[in-house]
Specification:
elongated; 4 strands; single chain; 1 helix; alpha+beta
């Protein structure tokens, strides 16, 4: 995977297991973009936060 913003190949990935799946936070050290996915599908941060509150 590459950063969708600056196309850097080196990314930081942090996995978080919640009640409804495996979230991964991707962070780009080059441009500081951040995004999330749930079980491999991109999700909005708002949805992640909703899930965290519900858990
Ligand atoms: Zn980037």
């Amino acid at each position: 995977m590459r950063c969708p913003h600056c196309h850097a190949a080196v990314l930081v990935e942090i996995g978080v297991t919640l009640a409804n799946g495996q979230f991964t936070m991707h962070s780009c050290p080059s441009c500081e973009a951040r995004w999330w996915d749930l079980n491999g599908e991109a999700v909005e941060l708002a949805r992640v936060l909703t899930t965290v509150k519900a858990a």
